[in-house]
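Worked example 2:
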Amino acid sequence: MILHTEVFGDGEPIVFLHTGLQTGMTDFEYQREYFKEKYKVILPDLRGHGKSGEKDLSNFFEDSAEDIATTLSHLEIESAHIVGCSLGALVGLFLGKRFPHKLKSLVLSGILPERPSNWSELHRKDVKRQSEILQSEELSRHFDNLHKSNWRHLLEIVKDENWYPFEETKDLEGIAAPVLYIVGEEKDMETKGALLYPSLQDNVHVSIIPFASHLVHLEQPKIYTQILEEFIDNVK
């Protein structure tokens, strides 16, 4: 499907892939304002999010990767710098493995390179947090206003303990474009990728950001943006 997409600026294209339950316009806001002065900033709503109404989320990552490729083609963009965090980073990873020709570079943050030994416990906590969202009238109204589709279907996906694509995150096989793995120091399970990925491929660059956790682009926006710009400038 062609995703609802906002575009700002001119120049080399950068695609920012938002986190779960966010949209292209509610995430990466600092980076949008910064990069639109010199780049074409592309902000899609992933399927089932924002104005990209889609009820079929059964094959979310595969379909989302194809959505991004289709949307870029619709915008007459052959390839772009792909930047994603958390859910968006997983979509970016699937895109890179299945449509490598669409990548000028790939920037990942907020993903798990391997299944943690306490994954079942972590998953139970996540499901509990999600149920609290559903029980909150204020949050429910907020997400009802934010998303055209029934955002509750997105929470159904992650109720399955095996929803996370560890078979995909264990490597970056097939991605020849330069990769930046940028991660907050406070997420031990995510920082493991800083050792794993460069040991598997020599096209991987790593940055560990202090005083940051899962959402490093929000928690340290200036440092994140500076590193991202330096990386992209060196890809040219």
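The chain has a mean pLDDT of 96. The chain is about 45% helix and 15% strand.
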